[in-house]
Amino acid sequence: MSAVPISWYLLLSAILFGIGAIGALTRRNGIAIFLSVELMLNAANLTLVAYARQLGSHTGQVIVFFVMAVAAAEAAVGLALFIAVFRQRHTIDVNRMNLMRW
Amino acid sequence: MLQLLWLIPILPFLGATINGVLGKKLPKPVVTAVALGAPFLSLLLALGCLWEFAHGSEESFELTKYMWTTGDLSIPVAFLLDHLSAVMLFIITFVGFLIHVYSVGYMAHEEGYRRYFAYLNLFMCAMLLLVLGNNYLVMFVGWEGVGLCSYLLIGFYYDQPFPPYAGKKAFIVNRIGDFAFLVGMFALFAHFGSLTYHDVLPKIAANPALVTIPYVGSFSLASFIALCFFIGAMGKSAQIPLYVWLPDAMAGPTPVSALIHAATMVTAGVYMVVRSNVIYQLAPGVSLFVAIIGALTAIFAASIGIAQTDIKKVLAYSTVSQLGYMFLAAGLGAYSAALFHVMTHAFFKALLFLGSGSVIHAMSGDQDMDHMGGLKKWMPSTRLTYLIGAAAIAGVPLLSGFFSKDEILHSAAASGHWLLWLVGLITAGMTAFYMFRSYFLTFEGEFRGTHEQEHHLHESPPSMVVPLWILAIGAIFAGYVGIPKMFSAGRDLNWFHHWLEPVIAVPQGLEAGEHNVGPGLEWALLLITVAIAFAGIFLAWANYGGDKGLARGNAWAARVPVLHRLLLNKWYVDEIYDRLIVRPLAALSRFFWKAVDTFVIDGAINAGAFLTELTGDVGRFTTTGNVRNYALYFFLGVILLFWWVAFG
Of A13-17, B56-60, B62-66, B264-268, where does mean pLDDT reach its minimum? Predict the structure, then answer.
């Protein structure tokens, strides 16, 4: 089994993370921001499994399961929040969510 | 009966409480009954106790009601009746009750009738506590209590501008003396762990401790305590330099001046010195200082009294002057003479003040002698009793003041302090002069007031005249308890002297000094004293007697304009104090207020508040409320964190 060099994984992970970060910062649609966050989480997951394989350790893979579980919970809560917001204001544009500003 | 000793101060306290708390709801006769009943019962109890005590064989009777204990401090709240407190007890209850009776007439038309009597009863309580306590702390409680009542009663007419000011002045000046009194008590307690007279006083002689005051010097313990106590007495008993409050205290109602500022409270300092005579005998230097201050006060106040036109001011300075006599005697070790003068003075000065009150009552509140004159036509009883009082204080032979003043001058001569004797002698002449000046200006000559005042003139009601006569009888006869040896052909009739023997040890110096003055010299000195007194009376008659008294007197005063102005303005002492003490103190206070408090302290706090506000004002621009901005901060933070991990 010819090994794909770890640098490729890391490069892919960095690209995915960058796309996610830029998306999270630039999009105004809440769902889109959410998607971007998921992208960043999975970029991190990719790094973890790549290293786990490289180092022959299972720890990284175990952490990935945890991350996926947390991400699922987060998605559930987050989507519920957005639904609640949408019911009130008929939009999920985060720029309009400014009740708490001074 | 003696077991009820504690009731004597408590009864007036109950009277004060009833009138003070419930008085508003009570009808006026009930207020009067309570106000008079309490001191009357006290007087009866006191007479009963004195009777039993005088016929018992013990030298003193003590009654402990309560032990006040906190930590190491244990002070008995106990009452003591011995030969010294017995004299004071009699003066206070007797004169006090008479003045209560007089007040019923004098204050009849006043707004604050019940308030007045509540204060006056409270004063009786405090004063009795002062003399009946068996330790310095109980004395101090009474001491402060009379100070409080004095303040309240001086400022009785609180809707006028001057009386409250005079009250504050009295309170603050007294506080200076009280501070020293406290320091003396602390010194006693620090060395002996007790403040009870019979515990502490015998131990002082054996204590060799030195008290060092930085930059001043070392004193023996006795001298230090004696000095502290005397400074306390200076405040309460109006001696130089703390006498300035007493003349202003005349702003209170006149019976108050008679009771508090003549007969009882101001003699508390003398009582304290006599009570502590053991300490003073161990401190000859301080004793001499006491005598010198007393003599200076006597002549200084008498000189001011000469030129005053306000009848109460004359009496006020006269009181200061007579208190000086008492301290002169006490300082020379003639403690029984000092107390003798306290007693006779209580009678004739209370009489004079009540007489002046009767006059002021008739004059509708006018106190200026320039507006009086010829009042004998309308007020025969007041005039006669005032004349008796004036003669008694002037030292006319066989009246009470003659005996007590002569005993003081005699002890000055006997102890060899001829300069002090001379000062006392001159003061005696001045006393006779200013008292008869006030008598002639008030009662002789023609009436000089307005027509309206003349129409209103009347003799006072019986409730005022009867106390005057009783006090007049006292002013005549009170001296006969202390007849000097020379009058009784060798037999010792000085009953007062013997009465006080158990509490007062005659100092060695004075006993030996008795031999300095032989019988011939003694008679000669007595004649000189009497001659000086009559010279003063004659001078007053020559200048102020007759129909045109005031005009002739003013012409006489105009011959020495500078001196007259000095005396009229009380040697400008109040002005000097104002410049030297009051204003610098006010300036210093203003400095601390404006510079330190407002600028430094408030400034530091305000600067802190301003910085916080500024931080907030700048910082809040970052809190936009926009979620995406927060996300950006978050992201930047993460980058910084990584930067730090990777390269930091």
Answer: B56-60
A89 contacts chain B (CB < 8 A):
no
Quick: pLDDT tens for A40-63. Answer: 999 999 999 999 988 988 899 999
Distances (CA, A) of A65 to A21, A78, B61: 22, 20, 98
- How far apart are alpha carbons B383 and B597 in whole angstroms? 59
Q: Cα separation of A4 and A7, whole Å?
A: 8
B629 touches chain A (CB under 8 A): no
What's the whole-number average pLDDT of chain B? 89
User: Does B636 contact chain A (CB < 8 Å)?
Assistant: no
Q: Is B607 exposed, middle or buried (0-12, 13-18, 19+ CB in 10 A)?
A: exposed
Q: Where are the domains of chain A?
A: 6-96
User: pLDDT tens digits for B264-291?
Assistant: 999 999 999 999 998 998 888 899 999 9
Contacts of B627 in chain A (CB under 8 A): 94-95, 97
What would the CATH number be for the domain defined by A6-96?
1.10.287.3510
Question: A-contacting residues of B 176-215, CB under 8 Å?
Answer: none
Predicted complex: ipTM over 0.95: no
The verdict on a CB contact (< 8 Å) between B628 and A99 is: no
Of A21, A101, A102, the CB nearest to B635: A21
**Predicted confidence (pLDDT) at residue A1 exceeds the cutoff of 60:** no
